[in-house]
Design brief:
The complex is a heterodimer of chains A (495) and B (306).
Chain A lengths: L1 H21 L12 H14 L10 E5 L11 H12 L2 E5 L6 H10 L6 E4 L1 H9 L7 H6 L8 H7 E2 L2 E2 L2 E2 L6 E6 H7 L7 H12 L6 E4 L15 H4 L6 E4 L2 E4 L6 H13 L12 H9 L3 E7 L2 H13 L5 E4 L7 E3 L4 E4 L6 H12 L4 H7 L7 E4 L2 E4 L32 H12 L1 E3 L7 H22 L5 H23 L2
Parallel strand pairs in A: 1-2, 1-3, 8-11, 13-17
Antiparallel strand pairs in A: 3-14, 4-5, 6-14, 7-11, 7-12, 9-10, 15-16
Helix pairs in contact in A: 3-15, 13-16, 17-18
Chain B lengths: L2 H17 L1 H19 L10 E4 L2 E5 L3 H8 L1 H34 L3 H12 L6 H11 L6 H8 L11 H29 L3 H9 L4 H25 L7 H6 L5 H4 L2 H11 L3 H30 L5
Antiparallel strand pairs in B: 1-2
The chains are: A alpha/beta (495), B mainly alpha (306).
Chain lengths: 495, 306
C-alpha cells in the first residue's frame, strides 16, 4: 500500500510539473532564437540572399488589429500562401480590436515587440519619437516599389523628416449617412445647409415616437482625430489642440466653439440628437441605424457605405442608407493614414521592409494576397474580373478584406475588382469636401496630461449639451480646471 | 526562542516530513504554484517606485509616484467614491441578505422555498456585461420600460445611468439585485444550525415571532455576520467590474473608483509606475480595513477572526 501510495504521489507530481511547463509560448520568432542557432541560420540564409544583399528572414512576426482578416475568415490561408510565395513564416498576433493599443503598450513595455505592427498616426508618432520604431525613410528613398505610392500620403506621415511606417492606404474619413427612403417619404431633398439639415432631422422625428433623428457615439471621440464625428454641429470649431497662425492653442477656448455648443445644445433640447449619445458605442449606433431606429449617423466612408445599407435591407428591404455630401458650413475630416511600422526590436528591419512591406505593394501577387486573399479560397477570377467568394466566417456574406483596401489604394493597382457603387459613392462624398485632421505632435507632457484634459472636455460638453450648465459657466469651469495641464501641454507643443 | 527550543522544533518538522513524506510531496506542486502565482508577482510592487512607460524605464524615482497620487484630484475623487460605494454596498448588502435569509427561513412550504431560492440566486450567475446591457435597456431614456411608466404618469424621462443624482442609487440597486440572493446562502446555512429548542422555549415564555428573531436568531447569527462582514471588508477596495460596465463620461465624478482609475492610467495610458503606486496604496488601505474589522470583531465577540 505504501509503495502504491508513493507511486501515485510521484505520478501526480510529475503530471503537475508537465502541466506547468506545457503552458509555454507556441513558437519562436527570429529574435527569440538562441544566439548560436541564429548565427547558424544567418549563415545558411546568406546563401539564399537576394542580390541586393538584404538578408531574408526565416520568420516575420507582425501584430495587427481587427482590420486584418480574422482567423475564422481564413487568416491561415494567407499565412500559408505567403510562405509559398516568399518562403517566410508569417506569425500574426491579433489582439481583440477594442484592446489593441493596450496590448501594443504592453508589448513595448515588456520588450516583446514584434517585427512589425499596425499603428494609427498618433501612436506611430508617439512610438517613433520615443525610439521604438525603425526609421524607414532611407529604405523608402531606395525603394522603387514603395516610391510608387502616393507621395502626399507618405509626406503626411513624416515626423521631423522620419518615416515611421508605410501607409496601408488613404487615411479615410467619416461621412454622414442618412435614410434616403425617409427623405423621399417626407418629400425632402438631401440637405446642403445646416438649416436644411435641421429640417431633415425634424422631419425624421415626425415619423414615429421611437425614431432617433441623429445618433452618434459620443460628442467627441477618444482616438485621433477626436473631432471626426458631429462635424455638422461643430462646423469650424475643433475641440482639440490645433495650430492657429503657427501657434498651438486649445480649440475648446476658441471663439467658434461658442456657437458650436449652442447648436449642439439646441438640437439636443429639441430632441433631434440621441439622448443616449453619451453612453453609445459605435456598435450601438450601427445597430440603431440598421434596425431602423436612427435616421442619421456619421461613420467611416468606404466599406461601411455598403455594409450599413446591406444590414438595413436585411431587416427592412425598402430601407436605404446613403452617404450625403458635407453641408456648406463645414467639411468632413480625413485622418492621416494608418500604417504598418517596423519596430526597433526587429533583428532584421531591412528584411522585413523588403519581404513584407515591398511585397505588400508589389502590384502583383503580393498586393493581391494582402488585398483580396487567396484565389480559389477568398476570390475567383471570371473573364478577367475578380469576384469575392463566400466568407469562411459567414457563408452568407462575401469574403472581406485581408489588410489593404481597393478603394483606399495608393499606387493605382488594378486588381480587377469592381468596387460596389455605394463604397465609391461614400468615398466620393467624403472627398468632395474634406480637410485633413492634423495629429497633435507627441510629447511626454501630452501623454501625462492629455487624457485628463480630454475627460474635462467631455464633462464640460456633456453638461452644456444636457443643459445642466450654461455655455459661459461650462467654458469657465473647463478653463479653470484644465488651465495648469493645458498650459504645460501648450508650452511643450509651442517649443 | 532558545536554541534548544529551535532545535526541538526543527527536529519536530523533520520528523513530520519523514513520517508523512508522500503527503508533503503531493503538497509540493501546490505550494510551488502558490509561490509562483501569488507571491512572486508581489515583487511587481517595486514598479511603484519607478517611472515606467512602454518607451522608458523602469527608472527609480523614489516616492514621486506617491506624492503625485496624493495631489491628484482624480485619484482623491476615485478614492472617496470607492469608499462611499463599497461601504454603502457592504452595509446594505449585509442588511438585505439577513432580512431575505430570515424571510426565507420562515417559509414552510419546501417547494415554494426552493423556487424562491432558485429565482433569487440566478442573477448572481449572470455576467456583469449582461446585467449592464439589461439595465441599460430597461433604464433607457428612449423607450426604456421605467421611463415609459414615468411618462405615463406625466413625468419627464430620466437618464438614470447618466445622471449624477441617480447613478449611485441605481448602481446600488443593481448590485443588490444581482448579489443579495447569493449572499443569503451563508446566513441560511447558519440559521439551520440554530437549535429549535431555543425557539420552543421562547414560545413557551410567550415570545412572538419578532422577539424570537431579535433575541434568538440574530444573536445566534452574530458570529456568521461578523465573519462575512470582515471578509467582505477586505474586498471593499476591489470594486471594478460592476462599476466599469455601468459608468460613462457623464457620471465619472461619482462613478470613477480606484480600480477603474488604475485601469485607465495603467493599461490605457500605459503609465505603469504610477498606476502600480495607486494599486499599492489601495492594497494598504484594504489591509488596514481587515485589521480594523478584526479588531472590531475582538471587541464585540471577544475573539479575533484572524
Amino acid at each position: 500500500m505504501k509503495k502504491r501510495t508513493k507511486g501515485l504521489m510521484l505520478f501526480l507530481v510529475v503530471m503537475s510539473i508537465f502541466g506547468l511547463v506545457a503552458c509555454g509560448p507556441k513558437g519562436e520568432s527570429t529574435k527569440d532564437t538562441p544566439p548560436n542557432t541564429q548565427q547558424k541560420e544567418t549563415n545558411e540564409e546568406k546563401e539564399n540572399n537576394s542580390s541586393d544583399g538584404v538578408e531574408k528572414p526565416s520568420k516575420i512576426h507582425i501584430m495587427v488589429d481587427g482590420s486584418f482578416m480574422l482567423p475564422e475568415a481564413g487568416q491561415d490561408d494567407i499565412v500559408k500562401k505567403y510562405k509559398e510565395l516568399t518562403g517566410i513564416d508569417l506569425e500574426i498576433t491579433q489582439p481583440a480590436h477594442n484592446q489593441y493599443y493596450e496590448r501594443v503598450n504592453l508589448v513595448f513595455a515588456t520588450g516583446d515587440a514584434p517585427d512589425a505592427l499596425a499603428l494609427d498616426i498618433a501612436n506611430m508618432y508617439k512610438y517613433g519619437s520615443n525610439g521604438a520604431l525603425y526609421d524607414l525613410k532611407p529604405l523608402y528613398d531606395q525603394s522603387e516599389v514603395l516610391r510608387s505610392l502616393d507621395a502626399n500620403a507618405i509626406e503626411a506621415m513624416l515626423l521631423d523628416g522620419k518615416l515611421y511606417g508605410m501607409p496601408k492606404g488613404d487615411g479615410n474619413g467619416s461621412v454622414t449617412y442618412i435614410r434616403k427612403d425617409w427623405l423621399d417619404q417626407l418629400g425632402l431633398e438631401v440637405p446642403t445647409t445646416y438649416d436644411e439639415f435641421l429640417n431633415m432631422l425634424r422631419g425624421f422625428k415626425t415619423l414615429g415616437n421611437e425614431i432617433i433623428p441623429y445618433t452618434s457615439p459620443g460628442i467627441i471621440y477618444d482616438e485621433y482625430p477626436t473631432y471626426i464625428y458631429n462635424r455638422f454641429f461643430f462646423h469650424d470649431a475643433i475641440p482639440e489642440f490645433i495650430p492657429v497662425n503657427g501657434e498651438w492653442v486649445d480649440g475648446m477656448l476658441e471663439p467658434e466653439m461658442i456657437p458650436a455648443l449652442e447648436r449642439l445644445r439646441d438640437a439636443f433640447t429639441e430632441g433631434l440628437i440621441d439622448k443616449e449619445i453619451i453612453t453609445n458605442k459605435t456598435s450601438t449606433c450601427r445597430d440603431k441605424m440598421t434596425s431602423g431606429m436612427a435616421g442619421v449617423f456619421n461613420y467611416w466612408a468606404g466599406q461601411w457605405g455598403k455594409t450599413l445599407d446591406d444590414n438595413l435591407k436585411a431587416t427592412d428591404p425598402t430601407g436605404e442608407v446613403v452617404a450625403m455630401p458635407a453641408i456648406k458650413e463645414t467639411s468632413y475630416i480625413e485622418r492621416v493614414g494608418f500604417g504598418l511600422s517596423v519596430t526597433n526590436a526587429s533583428k532584421n528591419p531591412e528584411g522585413v521592409f523588403k519581404y513584407l512591406l515591398e511585397f505588400m505593394y508589389d502590384k502583383s501577387e503580393g498586393q493581391m494576397l494582402f488585398t483580396h486573399g487567396v484565389e480559389g479560397i477568398h476570390y475567383e477570377m471570371k473573364n478577367g474580373e475578380l469576384f469575392k467568394m463566400p466568407s469562411k466566417a459567414n457563408a452568407t456574406q462575401a469574403a472581406g478584406q485581408v489588410f489593404l483596401l481597393t478603394e483606399l489604394n495608393l499606387n493605382n493597382f488594378d486588381d480587377h475588382f469592381k468596387i460596389d457603387e455605394r463604397i465609391v459613392d461614400s468615398r466620393t462624398k467624403l472627398k468632395q469636401s474634406v480637410q485633413v485632421g492634423i495629429p497633435v505632435p507627441p510629447s511626454a507632457v501630452l501623454d501625462k496630461y492629455g487624457a485628463d484634459v480630454q475627460i474635462l472636455r467631455k464633462e464640460m460638453l456633456v453638461d452644456i449639451v444636457y443643459g445642466r450648465v450654461s455655455i459661459e459657466d461650462g467654458l469657465e469651469r473647463y478653463k479653470e480646471q484644465s488651465k495648469d495641464k493645458v498650459a504645460k501641454i501648450l508650452e511643450e507643443l509651442n517649443k | 526562542m532558545t536554541k534548544e527550543q529551535r532545535d526541538k522544533q526543527d527536529k519536530g518538522l523533520k520528523v513530520q516530513i519523514k513520517r508523512y513524506t508522500p503527503f508533503y510531496i503531493m503538497f509540493l506542486p501546490v505550494f510551488l504554484l502558490f509561490i509562483v502565482i501569488s507571491y512572486l508577482p508581489m515583487f511587481g510592487v517595486l514598479l511603484s517606485f519607478t517611472e515606467y512607460t512602454p518607451y522608458s524605464g523602469p527608472n527609480f524615482i523614489g516616492l514621486e509616484n506617491f506624492k503625485e497620487l496624493l495631489l491628484n484630484s482624480r485619484f482623491i475623487s476615485s478614492f472617496i467614491n470607492t469608499l462611499k460605494l463599497s461601504l454603502t454596498n457592504l452595509i446594505l448588502g449585509t442588511i438585505t441578505a439577513i432580512i431575505i435569509a430570515l424571510l426565507l427561513n420562515e417559509l414552510r412550504q419546501k417547494s415554494f422555498k426552493k423556487f424562491v431560492q432558485t429565482v433569487i440566486y440566478l442573477p448572481h450567475f449572470l455576467s456583469w456585461i449582461v446585467v449592464a446591457s439589461i439595465f441599460t435597456i430597461i433604464l433607457s431614456p428612449q423607450g426604456g420600460a421605467i421611463n415609459l411608466i414615468l411618462e405615463q404618469f406625466g413625468f419627464e424621462p430620466i437618464y438614470f445611468l447618466a445622471d449624477n443624482k441617480w447613478w449611485t442609487p441605481v448602481y446600488l440597486f443593481i448590485v443588490r439585485w444581482k448579489e443579495t440572493g447569493w449572499a443569503t446562502i451563508i446566513y441560511l446555512a447558519a440559521l439551520t444550525g440554530i437549535s429549535p429548542e431555543l425557539y420552543e422555549a421562547a414560545m413557551i415564555d410567550g415570545a412572538g415571532r419578532l422577539k424570537q428573531v431579535l433575541y434568538i436568531t440574530l444573536p445566534s447569527l452574530l458570529v456568521t455576520i461578523l465573519i462575512v462582514f470582515v471578509l467582505n471588508l477586505a474586498k471593499v477596495m476591489n470594486l471594478f467590474e460592476s462599476v466599469f460596465v455601468l459608468q460613462n463620461d457623464m457620471v465619472l465624478n461619482k462613478a470613477e473608483v480606484i480600480s477603474t482609475y488604475v485601469f485607465k492610467v495603467g493599461i490605457r495610458q500605459a503609465d505603469y509606475g504610477y498606476s502600480t503606486a495607486v494599486g499599492l496604496f489601495k492594497s494598504l488601505v484594504s489591509f488596514i480595513f481587515v485589521l480594523a474589522g478584526n479588531w472590531g470583531s475582538k471587541k464585540i465577540k471577544g475573539e479575533a477572526l484572524l
